[in-house]
Amino acid sequence: MMSARVFQLLVLACLAAALRAGGENYYHLMITPQSPVVEIGTNFTATCMIINTAEATADDLFWNLSKTTIPKEQYTKVNRSALNVTITVTSAGIEWLFCLCKKVSPYVVLNDGKFIHGIQLSKVYRLEKPENLSCIAVQEKTYISPYISCTWGAARHQSTHCSATYTLHVKFSSQTFKNSTCGNSARVRLDTFPNHMTLEIWVEAEDKLRTVESDHLKEDAGWFVKTNPPSDVKIFSEKSFPTSLLINWTQPIAKEYLRLMYDVRFRPTGSQNWTYVPLEDIAKDIQSFRLQDLRPYTVYVTQVRCKNAVEGHGYWSNWSTSATKRTPEDRPTSKPDLWMIVTKDDVTNQQQVQFVCKDPVFANGRITSFDMKIQAQKDKVTNESKSIPVNRSEADSSSSQRKITVLEQIHLTDRETVKVHVTAINSVGKSPEASLGLRQKTHAFAPVEELKVVSREGQLWLEWKPPSNAHVSEYVVEWVSDAQMDWQRENRNARHTAIKGNLMKFVCYSVSVYPIYSGWVGKPASAEAYLEQGAPLEAPSVNCKQGRNEAKLGWEEVPRHKSRGFITNYTIFYTSGTEKRSMYLSHSVLNTLYVVCSCQSYLLISALFLCRRISSS
Questions:
Q1: Mean pLDDT value of segment 264-285
Q2: What ranges make up the beta strands (E) of 184-336?
Q3: What does 211-226 look like in DSSP terms, one character per residue?
Q4: 506-538: string of b/e by CB count within 10 Å (b at 16+)?
Q5: Which of 22, 174, 210, 551 maximizes the CB count within 10 A of its CB?
């Protein structure tokens, strides 16, 4: 077999002979190969030949890569008139490789243009095998589109020019369809989509150095299909099934083309969290499904999607358009939230007790009325029973903010004990009963201890200790302002909580914690607090009565709605003639102050107040 060195010499001899036949306009140096494509990360060898002259030998030659001279260690002498160089291709882009001759004779100097030759190195990265090939055929109208669209992993090194061509092949039966691109996606058009036939799909990558193929996808045509979503999705409610909704839909494509499986999801309106029906609970090739274990009288949003029923085949369709329906009403399954507002009647010196309540958390419908019984405990007979009608809208029933209903107001002496029983009623039935009892004042249950209320992180936080030697069943936290009253319940083990209502800045709230003893209300522990404090909107109004050597100042407190915080002190600024003075006063000082001046009677004293508030905790 002919050696590589002998083969190289024969090639060089042929090139030299061809160049001599070219006439007088010849060069004395020639590089082979011409205009090579080289692979980045590999070694490349070029040969420079001396032709048509004896003025130079291989020992007189040297190599430049662009403007940098290549070290002699990378040269290999082939013979007296040929010199090799080997370089490592390290970067992208186009570079020039030059063979030059030293100025060894007058002839070389005079003909230096004939003793230089260069070739352009076109660099490419190693062509990679296309990976992660995936293909899809989507539905158009009532059939599957004849177009197959495929993508594959992009090459790790991208060139700015089209250095490689990717050809997508789709083969079935005896036909092959293909389309070429420089990118990592392509689409092939078939005559018709070959339902129930086997498709073989692959990508062939080719550049000037090599050709590589991706792995072949060989699957049933349905494996690649993505249908339209189910259409005409409708929901039906049935009065006798308050926790259920029936969904119907129309399949997007005929069963002759594809059998489908379905995915169903739903959520209450207003929520962003979907609940997904387990796929194993949904039979294949159906057009209806019953949602169960829903909340009564709740609006649900439902969507459906579908895919090839064969396990692992096809793509899920997009979700269908949303269908919305309310579940029917059911009997309330939780108690109304019964509470009271206690005030003092200044005329009769009796307690005024106003009983109020919120709808049950699980009202399961629109509350139409409350049944209320008031029982005097001295004889344990019902003194009064009445029905209080209410007018709730669907929006009220669906709102997370439960409305407060005023039920009844009664007067109680300090020696009276009373218990109230309330049920909520909707169109289906009656709720469990809520009870609330008030004991005569001398026998009232103990309050909580060491109540603290602080503003922190945009909320009012409460801490307390439970009553000693008492068995509390729960706590009620109440907050009252001039324009707002609300409450919340905490379990028996609670020792701290944050108020969950919408509180206003710069508004004073009276916050109370009531221990509840099996339905009987204990004494409250109370404190005043602000969510956030600010400077008072105005100073106190002041009047001044002057005496001979003193002035009597009187003022009115800043109204609560304008104080915007706790007033802790006053600073009074006054002048006596041209002399300016000030006086710091605690908030506990009475609303009258005598300013004693060692001054003449004709001097005028005027006053200006500065109120200071306590900083927010």
A1: 95
A2: 185-189, 198-206, 211-213, 217-220, 225-226, 231-236, 245-250, 260-268, 275-276, 288-291, 299-308, 323-326
A3: EEEPPPEEEEGGGGEE
A4: bbbbbbbbbbbbeebbbbbbeeebbbebeebee
A5: 551
Q: Is 513 left (phi over 0), alpha (psi -120 to 50) or beta?
A: beta
- Residue 104 phi/psi, 5-degree rounding, is -95, -10
pLDDT-derived band at 604 (thresholds 50, 70, 90) equals very low
Amino acid identity at 461: W
Rounded Cα–Cα distance for residues 217 and 235 (Å):
41
> Residue 49 class from Cβ within 10 Å (0-12 exposed, 13-18 middle, 19+ buried)?
buried
| pLDDT bucket at 242, cuts 50 / 70 / 90 | very high
Q: What is residue 465's predicted lDDT score, i.e. its pLDDT?
A: 95
Contacts of 600 (CB under 8 A, 6+ apart): none
d(CA 135, CA 143): 17
Residue 381 CB-density burial (10 A; 0-12 exposed, 13-18 middle, 19+ buried): exposed
Residue 212 identity (one-letter amino acid)? V
Residues 67-103: tens digit of each pLDDT: 899 999 999 999 999 999 999 998 877 889 999 999 9
Q: DSSP code of 60?
A: G
pTM to 2 decimals? 0.72
Which pair of structure tokens corresponds to residue 427?
Answer: 């169109």
Whole-angstrom Cα distance, residue 485 to residue 510? Answer: 9
Give the chain's length. Answer: 617
Q: Is residue 162 scored above 80 in pLDDT?
A: no
Q: How far apart are CA 424 and CA 95, in angstroms?
A: 88
